[in-house]
Structure formats: C-alpha cells, structure tokens
C-alpha cells in the first residue's frame, strides 16, 4: 500500500475539516462502504470475525480487517481475543459505538422511502 503523505495539501484540508466541522468528523469515522455495515451488525451483539464475514459476504478480507482496525482505533469497537487454538476473536461495540445506534436507525428510516434495491424491512427488524 502506498504511504499517505501527511503534509500534502489534501490531508491538511481534511484534518482542518474534521477539526472544524462535526459532520466531517462523523463522516471520517463512519465513512467507507463497510464501516456502517460492520457497526450495524455489531449493534445486534458481539460477533466473531467469521460471523461478520458471513453477514457481509461482498467485503474482502483485507478491507474487513482494515476497517475493523480503524473502528477499534477510533474507539467505536472492542476486540477481544481468547488465547486458544484456533484463536477466537470477538468484536463488540464500545459505549461510543452503541451511541451510534439511533443514528443508524434513522439512516435506515430515511432510506425506506428512497431505496431502489427493495424493502428495508429486514434492516428495521434487527
């Protein structure tokens, strides 16, 4: 992976936006295709890596691992590893991550009238 130049103009502008705009800050934490789906799955209780992979079959292993690490660094999820063979790793929401539940529910409700991919009922049931 190519290293990101921290002193580039675009990175300086991104940091300034995150520091000055609450919406940009939230988007920086939840942005991407997979983070909202990972958080949505974890809203329904702790999940092992394999359960997350099955629940989001279109995500690659690389991206799932990367986003799980980022969410952990951002303080939104916990990673619990048991010292057994084979290793058992469980992910769960932190209190900060749990606070996103109502926001995610509102996103689903907003999409209900606009979503062209079918019913959102399965998302509302969880």
Alpha-beta content class = mainly alpha
Write down the overall mean pLDDT: 85
- Which strand order do you get reading across the main beta sheet? 1-3-2
Please name the fourth-level CATH homologous superfamily: Winged helix-like DNA-binding domain superfamily/Winged helix DNA-binding domain
- Low-confidence stretches are none
Radius of gyration: 16 Å
Summed up, the domain count is 1
> What is the first-to-last residue Cα distance?
36 Å
Task: Encode the helix/strand succession as letters.
Answer: HHHEHHEEHHH
CATH fold descriptor:
Arc Repressor Mutant, subunit A
The biggest sheet, with number of strands, parallel, antiparallel or mixed sense and barrel status, is:
3 strands, antiparallel
Q: Give the strand tally.
A: 3
The helix content, as a percent range, equals: 55-70%
Question: What key attributes describe this structure?
Answer:
126 residues, globular, single chain, three-stranded antiparallel beta sheet, Arc Repressor Mutant, subunit A
């Amino acid at each position: 992976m190519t290293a990101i130049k921290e002193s580039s103009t675009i990175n300086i502008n991104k940091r300034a936006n995150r520091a000055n705009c609450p919406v940009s800050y939230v988007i920086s934490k939840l942005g991407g295709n997979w983070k909202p789906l990972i958080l949505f799955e974890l809203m329904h209780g702790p999940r092992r890596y394999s359960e997350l992979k099955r629940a989001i079959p279109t995500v690659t292993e690389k991206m799932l691992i990367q986003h799980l690490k980022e969410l952990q660094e951002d303080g939104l999820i916990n990673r619990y590893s048991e010292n057994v063979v084979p290793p058992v790793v469980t992910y769960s929401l932190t209190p900060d991550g749990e606070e996103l539940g109502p926001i995610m529910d509102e996103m689903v409700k907003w999409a209900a009238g606009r979503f062209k991919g079918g019913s959102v009922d399965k998302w509302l049931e969880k």
